[in-house]
Amino acid sequence: NSYRQYGSPAGVAQSVSGFQYWTDKTPNGTFNMLSPGAKNTPAPWVPFTRAGCNVGAVGMANMEIENTGDVAKVFGAGSPEAADPNKFADFEGIAVHCAQSSAFCSTANHGITDALPSEPGGYNGFNVLHGHKFVAPQIGTLPLRDLDGNVIADHFNGQTIPGFPGFDGLSASVSLAYTAAMQEHGVPVTFSYISAAHVDAQGNDAGPGQADYVARLRSYDSAWGKFFARLRGDGITPANTTFVVTTDENDHFAGGKGSPAGCDGVHTPCTYSQIGEVSTNLAQLMRQAGNSTPFAVHADTAPAIYLNGQPARDAGVVRQFEHTLAGIQVTNPISGERQSLVNFQVDPVGLRFEHMVTADPKRTPTLVAFARPDYFLSTNPADCSTTAAVIECPPSFGSDAWMHGDLAPEINVAWAGLVGPGIRHLGQDGEVWSDHADLRPTILLLAGLRDDYAHQGRPLWELIDQRFLPSGLRDNESLLRLGQELKQIDAPVGALGLRVVRMSNRAITGGDERYAAIENEIAKLTGERDEVAGQIIARIEAAAFGGRTEQGGDDAATRADSLLRRAAELDS
Predict the structure, then answer these.
(1) What phi and psi values does residue 359 have, to the nearest 5 degrees?
(2) Burial of 34 per CB tally in 10 Å (0-12, 13-18, 19+)
């Protein structure tokens, strides 16, 4: 959602929101959406609009206006839109990026130039329609209603304004109503976000099986049923349309056991006396441990920590900070267990392997601490009464009980569902090792399109009927094995990535000689991994999107196996 960036006179990393429009820049002039080449990342709607399709975005980060400050940037500082007192409801969260000459985004409909000045190959003659105020009249009868018949509106400060209801207001009924309306009115490609079902109207989290949570899940299930029935009535079915649904990640529940014993939410509702993250003031913890080094933190259960002045990673002040952090013990108020606060620390050498270092060096943290997932680490005062001797709070009983972004199996194992023309009917399959980077190339392979860049993931062509595959992928078992090995050496939580996290933590918590030796090994692994992964990705991209048959690959497979063996030896 956000990150920090060095650049203030005092050398303190300042917080920057990740929720900005696609072409926005940060205070130091780098693009928020930053490519490895330090340019603006190519936009995801471009292959579709170039092919003649309008593309809708419902609450999709960075594809539409994310904050009211962006209204002036997109429409112009002196525009009527920038002066609109209801700009949140009118212009945030909803957009349609149009194909060339599409009437949907005409100037008469308030379409404006879809400016992507850094797009490879250029991007001229395309318009975009921003906001509920301009999109809604093109996709339905006003006022636009959700799938349950309620007017879609922003409810804020006692006011009800028809328009975008906020990102947390995108329930299944609301989001899928926008999506269906777009599909029905000339927008055949839609990307839609649905807000979490475990959060109530007051922003508090419910636990598994809790009555209000179960009720919201039932309402979401009902909304999906209405959505698919409505699309069936329009002739939009898996026979002619690809549907991809996934979670951004799974969550860890921070809370005690449900009561009564054996409650499941289906037959017996659960209640919780302990529910909510354990709020922890990391600055106070460090001071109590005898370390007063000033730092900023991107607050999280896996916080990125930025020591003031951006000292070198092997500087004494950094090494001492890391050792102090590794030694902090806390008592978990949920379980009563005495435990280390942090499971793993990873510094920029390990972060580079994990694809967590950008082309902007000012964004690189001193380290990332993967805490135990019950804890939320910040430098703010704890959210309960405390004294100088008390640095942990009891759970916050409702707010933020579902923890994500950390390194834990219950968080890192998510799911995706795909159905549509050419997709095999495999049912639930836990054997295909994939991650989110694979969904984009899979969608484009099915659509017969290509991006302006090589993907970091791979198309999941083992899920696709052979008849729908390009010749370079059809019955190509050797390339499929390479694709599967790619995930294990290149994905952040693949076999190699998890070993590197453990290696980085051992280096950081050990002596200086051991630190240097392990860091050098990680750097070597990273260089070799990048080379091998690049070879594999090039072969897959050529076969999937370049019309070339790619056989063989024994050398790349051998080198990938060697990387995994070496890392296993180093991790032992």
Answers:
(1) -75, -5
(2) middle
CA angle, corner 160, sides to 142 and 21, nearest 5?
75
Tell me which residue has tokens 């090494």.
Answer: 319
Is the pTM higher than 0.70? The answer reads: yes
Residue-level pLDDT at 329: 94
Separation CA 206–CA 215 (nearest Å): 11
Residue at 247: amino acid letter: T
- Residues 510-546 as b or e (16 or more Cβ within 10 Å = b): eeeeebeebbebbeebbebbeebbebbbebbbbbbbe
Closest C-alpha to 500, from 320, 322, 319, 349: 349
Q: State the number of CA atoms in the 13 A half-sphere of 186 facing the CB.
A: 15
Residue 176 makes CB contacts below 8 A (sequence gap 6+) with: 147, 192, 194, 223, 224, 226, 227
Residue 396: its pLDDT value, please?
A: 67
**Residue 223 identity:** A
Torsion, Cα of 274, 277, 282, 283 (10° steps): -80
Beta strands at 252-253 and 402-403: parallel, antiparallel or unpaired:
antiparallel
Q: Whose CA is closest to 345, among 507, 177, 160, 558?
A: 507
Q: Could you check whether the bond before residue 36 is cis, i.e. omega within 30 degrees of 0?
A: no
How far is 190 from 44, CA to CA, in rounded Å? Answer: 11
Q: Among 485, 487, 502, which Cα is nearest to 571's?
A: 502
Cβ contact 121:133 at 8 Å: no
Under 8 Å between Cβ of 369 and 303: yes
Q: Are 376 and 300 in contact (CB under 8 A)?
A: yes
Distance CA 222, CA 362 (A): 46
Q: Is 65 helix (H, G, I), strand (E, B) or coil?
A: coil
Q: What per-residue string of b and e applies to 218-236 under the rule 16 or more CB within 10 Å gives b?
A: eebeebeebbbebbeeeeb
Say if residue 451 is exposed, middle or buried (CB neighbours under 10 Å; 0-12, 13-18, 19+). middle
pLDDT of residue 567: 87
Quote the CA–CA distance of 440 and 461 in Å, as a whole number.
Answer: 12
Q: What is the pLDDT of residue 128?
A: 98
Chunked into runs of 10 residues, the chain (572 residues) has average pLDDT values of 89 95 95 94 98 98 96 96 97 98 97 96 97 98 98 91 96 98 98 93 88 96 98 98 95 95 95 91 93 96 97 96 96 91 98 97 97 93 58 70 94 96 94 95 97 94 96 92 95 96 97 96 97 94 85 79 89 80
- In whole angstroms, give the CA distance from residue 463 to residue 471: 16
Question: What's the burial of 425, exposed, middle or buried (CB within 10 Å: 0-12/13-18/19+)?
Answer: exposed
Show the tokens assigned to 319: 């090494």
Task: List the one residue out of 373, 346, 348 whose CA is nearest residue 506.
Answer: 346
pLDDT of 388 reads 45
Q: What is the pLDDT of residue 393?
A: 72
| H helical segments located in 185-266 | 211-233
